[in-house]
Every structure is written in structure tokens, then in C-alpha cells.
């Protein structure tokens, strides 16, 4: 199975080497889809300049060297190469793809161990909807690497430790365990936090108790640890409800919160100090990875032990990176975390490299997640200005989806199922379809739109093809062609579908799931044109054409279903 763009890139590179010498064998021939042919290669334009020759002449020299390939090439304009593939080749490739159980998706060679740090909400701070996005993007990537045959180790780096736990535990004692658990399980962590905070700020005795509680917690006092568990377990039960609603693959076994690294922090600091990588500065133990300076040109510190002896976010991340390399045996570590933490991660990675904890053979990447904004362009809040409860937000998406399909005549149960899939699909697809590092406006109306590059549109496109098969009384798996490409819309669709495997590879390499969304959207659009122009089941369509078109429907369906599944977007059977 071969992506035409990749096949052609290799061909043109070979021709470049033949015509101008092997030093050009790796040049990017700049092959793009074109409106005048299947593809256009623009390399002759830039190469002409370099070689001081007319680009047209360069283009002709490449064309002459292309040799025997399944298509035709033509030099046009100032020096473009217009390339058209033989329909026979496309047909053969598409038919092979249809017979391939992996629908053209390859396997990672060699398979890697990919550690993905994602979701990571905080229990002791305000929970915010930004974590929805890190959850959704991280989960899609986890599914994709697994599908490619790599081993994925999910790490949910919960914010479950630190000084706020003193006041959170004292507040738990004040209101009683049962009441606290009820509140936390219901997703009212923010209200809980705010109540504790208000007392902390206004009540001296409470403040003193809270501070003492931090000390007893850190010393490992059994009763305090038990109370911490009561708090955390209830909080995690709420997170689990959110995960279940979203259909993400995270489980409790993937929880590796900040608290997990407690016992490693002292050694982390000692080892870094012994290596001379960490030094004391104004009483604090600091890392000064090379290349980081503040506004005053002074080296920027990454504090791993405060002057009062306490540890913080950076200490934990230094311990975590070592654990991920040494114990989890990562080849690649992804941190799917807000873009505002970019400096922190650059410093952690640099310091870990400096310490020799992160060898060159292991890559560490911060997958920056852009901030979630409200329609007003500000940080996302409810109308009354409070932060938004994740579950309420998800429920609203489902309710709105239910309203949108209310008049389609489904019974209550079916309607609820579809509404769930459409609501969650809309939220997830909206997060995935734009590049992960751009800011993102959370807008129900747009994400629930049934047309455009949205979840509901993609689900609808898929459900529509399923219904064609229901009408035909044929299972999609039984549609095996052969595929014949009669009209341009068939050809365009088939040619596009051949690029599926390459897009998935690219998404895995670049960690850019929005590219898969764009590919699937283009698939649905090309299918729409095909379906308008090419009757499948209509009377008068001869048996061969019908078989071919059903095969194209089946291949499109497989690409859409597989692609949406890799993204974690559910597809209801009907819509
Ligand atoms: N809990 C953090 C936050 O909400 C994200 C943690 C990301 N992972 C990490 N290893 N630091 O900002």
C-alpha cells in the first residue's frame, strides 16, 4: 500500500540524483496535489536558481530521468512538473487497500515505548476545562501509537500533593468525611477548595492547623495519610466519571500523580547535587541548565528544593523524567500540557540531558496545548464568572445534541445513545481538529454544527455510508470490487484514500492529530461529491459499476471508521 505522494517523491528524488548528482537525492521535490494534474512538483523552480539554469530546462531534465513510472509527466509554465498517475495503478492500489485488514496503515518500525503524560488535573487547585483538552489530545495520540504497534504507557500526573493539602484535609475534618466525599464525588472540588481557602485567609487558628497538617502529612503520619486518601479517592471517582463520559482510555492504573514521586525526591536532589548539576543558591537547591537566562541576563534557576527544605513541581518533574527513562524504559516521552508551561519543560529537559538522565536516544517533547477561551476571547468561564465544572459542560453538549436530533423520530433509548455519541464526538473532534497549540474558542454552536469540519458532520458522513449498505442489503466487508475508475469524482476519491496510511504516520511523528481530522474531512467531502455524481444503487446502474462503487463506499467507510476510532470519536450507527 502506497501513498502516491510518497511514491512520487521517491521517484523524483531518484530522477534528481540521476540528472544532477547524488547530492540531490535527498532534496524535497515539493510534490503537492494540483488542480491541473494529480500532483505538481515545484522543485525545478528553486533548483534552477541554485544551478543557475532555467527552471524549465531543469524540469525537463527531471522529467527525462523519471523513467518508467505508472503515469505521465508534463513540464508546464515556468518550470512546474505536472504529474498524472495511471488510473490502472490507482485502481490496483485501492483494491489492495480494501483487501488489507489494516486499511493501508503500517506498523512502527521498530515499535517504540511511548510514555504519554496527559490529562493531569489538579485535586488541590481549581479544576479547569483546559484539562479536557490535554485529556482528549493525549488519548488520541495513545490510541494512534498503539494502533501502530508501539507500547504506550499512560501517565496521569495528577496534582495530588503539596501545601494546599494541609487546608484541604483540615476542611475535611471540619465538614465531616461523608459530606466531603459527597461534595468531591459530585465534582464540586472547586467549591470545596474555595471554602477551605476562605477559612485559611480569614481564620488564624485554621491557618495554623493547616500548616501543622502539611507537616504531619509530609512526615507520613498514618491518620493524615488516611484522610488524604479519603480526599483523593473521592476526587478520582469524579475524574473517572468524566473519563467514562468522554470514553477516554485512562484508568486508575495509569495514575502516577505527584505524590508517587515523594519518596524519590530526596535522592533526586542528592544525586543532582553530587553530580555538580545542582547548586545551592540563596539557600535553595537549583539547577541552571545552560542557555536559560532571565530578563537581567542572569542564569535562570529551576528550583528543586526550596530554602525551607520543601519540594515543588520541578523537583517532581526531575524525579519523573528519570523514572520514565530508567523504569518505564521510554523511547519517547510526550508531555501533553498547557502551552504556558513551555519554559518549565524546556528547562526540565535541558537539565535532565545535562545530568545524563535523558540520553540522546530518548526524545522528550512538550505537546503544547493552547488555552481554552470563551466566546468573548477570555479564559473560559461560566456566565457568572465561575470556572466551569467539566461534567456539566459535557452534559450540556449531550443535551444540545439531543435537542438537535429530537425530531428524527427515534425512540427514547436510541435517541439518548445518539445524543451521547454526537455530544461527546462534537467536543472531542473540536479539540482535535485545530492544531493543539493554538488557542481555542469553546463554542457549542460551532462544534455541534452538522456541516463543516465538525464531529457531527464526520459522524453523519459515516452513518450515511452505513445506510447505503443497509439499503443495498450487503455487508461492507462483502464489497470487494473490483474498483473501476470511470468518472473524475471516483478517481479523486480513490486517489485521496491512498494517502491514509501516510497521514497516520505523519500524525504519529509530528504529534499533530488535526492533520488526521483534515484528511478525514477531505475524505467526507470527496465522498459527498462522488455520491452526488455517481449513483450506486439506482436502477440502470450495471452490475460492474455497482460493485465498483460499493467497493469505493466500503473503502471510504473503513477509512472514516478507522480514522475516527483512532481519534477516539464515537460513531453512532444511525443519525
Ligand atoms: N497538573 C499540571 C497542571 O494542571 C499538569 C501536569 C503535567 N505533567 C507534568 N509532568 N508536569 O498544570
From TrEMBL:
Residues 6-85 form the Arginyl tRNA synthetase N-terminal domain. Keywords: Aminoacyl-tRNA synthetase, ATP-binding, Cytoplasm, Ligase, Nucleotide-binding, Protein biosynthesis. Its main location: cytoplasm. Its EC number is 6.1.1.19. It comes from the Bacteria. It is an enzyme of class 6 (ligase). The keyword Nucleotide-binding applies. It catalyses: tRNA(Arg) + L-arginine + ATP = L-arginyl-tRNA(Arg) + AMP + diphosphate. It is found in: Cytoplasm. PANTHER family: ARGININE--TRNA LIGASE, CYTOPLASMIC, ARGINYL-TRNA SYNTHETASE. Belongs to the class-I aminoacyl-tRNA synthetase family. This is Arginine--tRNA ligase. It comes from Nonomuraea africana.
Amino acid at each position: 500500500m502506497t501513498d502516491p505522494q510518497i511514491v512520487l517523491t521517491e521517484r523524483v528524488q531518484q530522477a534528481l540524483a540521476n540528472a544532477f548528482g547524488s547530492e540531490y537525492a535527498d532534496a524535497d521535490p515539493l510534490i503537492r496535489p494540483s488542480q491541473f494534474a494529480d500532483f505538481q512538483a515545484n522543485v525545478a523552480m528553486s533548483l534552477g536558481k541554485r544551478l543557475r539554469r532555467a527552471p524549465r530546462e531543469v524540469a525537463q531534465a527531471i522529467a527525462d530521468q523519471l523513467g518508467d513510472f505508472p503515469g505521465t509527466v508534463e513540464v508546464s509554465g515556468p518550470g512546474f512538473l505536472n504529474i498524472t498517475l495511471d488510473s490502472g495503478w490507482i485502481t490496483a492500489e485501492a483494491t489492495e487497500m480494501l483487501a488489507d485488514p489494516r486499511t493501508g496503515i503500517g506498523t512502527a518500525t521498530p515499535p517504540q515505548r511511548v510514555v504519554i503524560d496527559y490529562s493531569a488535573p489538579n485535586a488541590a487547585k481549581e479544576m479547569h476545562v483546559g484539562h479536557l483538552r490535554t485529556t482528549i489530545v493525549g488519548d488520541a495520540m495513545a490510541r494512534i501509537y498503539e494502533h501502530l504497534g508501539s507500547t504506550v504507557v499512560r501517565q496521569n500526573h495528577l496534582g495530588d500533593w503539596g501545601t494546599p493539602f494541609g487546608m484541604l484535609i483540615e476542611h475535611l475534618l471540619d465538614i465531616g468525611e461523608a459530606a466531603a466525599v459527597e461534595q468531591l464525588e459530585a465534582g464540586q472540588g472547586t467549591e470545596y477548595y474555595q471554602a477551605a481557602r476562605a477559612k485559611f485567609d480569614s481564620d488564624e487558628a485554621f491557618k495554623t492547623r493547616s500548616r501543622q497538617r502539611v507537616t504531619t502529612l509530609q512526615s507520613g503520619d498514618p491518620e493524615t495519610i488516611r484522610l488524604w486518601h479519603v480526599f483523593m479517592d473521592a476526587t478520582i471517582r469524579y475524574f473517572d466519571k468524566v473519563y467514562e463520559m468522554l470514553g477516554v482510555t485512562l484508568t486508575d492504573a495509569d495514575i502516577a500523580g505527584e505524590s508517587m514521586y515523594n519518596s524519590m525526591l530526596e535522592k533526586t536532589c542528592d544525586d543532582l547535587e553530587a553530580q555538580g548539576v545542582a547548586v545551592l543558591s540563596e539557600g535553595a537547591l537549583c539547577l541552571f541548565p545552560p542557555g536559560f537566562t532571565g530578563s537581567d541576563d542572569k542564569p535562570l534557576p529551576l528550583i528543586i528544593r526550596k530554602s525551607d527544605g520543601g519540594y515543588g513541581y520541578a523537583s517532581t518533574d526531575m524525579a519523573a523524567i528519570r523514572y520514565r527513562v530508567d523504569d518505564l524504559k521510554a523511547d519517547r516521552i510526550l508531555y501533553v500540557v498547557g502551552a504556558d508551561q513551555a519554559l518549565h519543560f524546556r528547562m526540565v529537559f535541558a537539565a535532565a540531558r545535562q545530568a545524563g538522565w535523558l540520553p540522546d536516544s530518548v526524545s522528550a517533547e512538550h505537546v503544547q496545548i493552547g488555552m481554552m477561551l470563551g466566546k468573548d476571547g477570555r479564559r473560559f468561564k461560566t456566565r457568572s464568572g465561575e470556572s466551569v465544572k467539566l461534567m456539566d459542560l459535557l452534559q450540556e453538549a449531550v443535551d444540545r445534541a439531543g435537542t438537535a436530533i429530537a425530531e428524527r423520530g427515534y425512540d427514547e433509548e436510541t435517541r439518548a445513545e445518539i445524543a451521547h455519541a454526537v455530544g461527546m464526538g462534537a467536543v472531542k473532534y473540536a479539540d482535535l481538529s485545530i492544531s493543539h497549540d493554538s488557542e481555542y474558542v469553546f463554542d457549542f454552536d460551532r462544534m455541534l454544527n452538522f456541516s463543516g469540519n465538525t464531529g457531527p458532520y464526520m459522524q453523519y458522513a459515516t452513518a450515511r455510508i452505513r445506510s447505503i449498505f443497509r439499503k443495498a442489503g450487503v455487508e461492507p466487508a462483502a464489497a470487494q470490487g473490483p474498483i473501476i475508475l470511470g468518472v473524475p469524482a471516483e478517481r479523486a476519491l480513490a486517489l485521496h484514500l491512498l494517502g491514509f496510511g501516510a497521514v497516520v504516520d505523519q500524525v504519529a511523528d509530528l504529534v499533530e492529530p488535526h492533520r488526521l481530522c483534515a484528511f478525514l474531512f477531505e475524505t467526507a467531502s470527496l465522498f459527498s461529491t462522488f455520491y452526488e455524481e455517481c449513483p450506486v444503487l439506482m436502477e440502470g446502474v450495471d452490475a460492474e459499476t455497482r460493485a465498483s462503487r460499493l467497493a469505493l463506499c466500503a473503502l471510504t467507510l473503513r477509512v472514516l471508521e478507522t480514522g475516527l476510532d483512532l481519534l477516539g470519536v464515537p460513531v453512532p450507527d444511525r443519525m
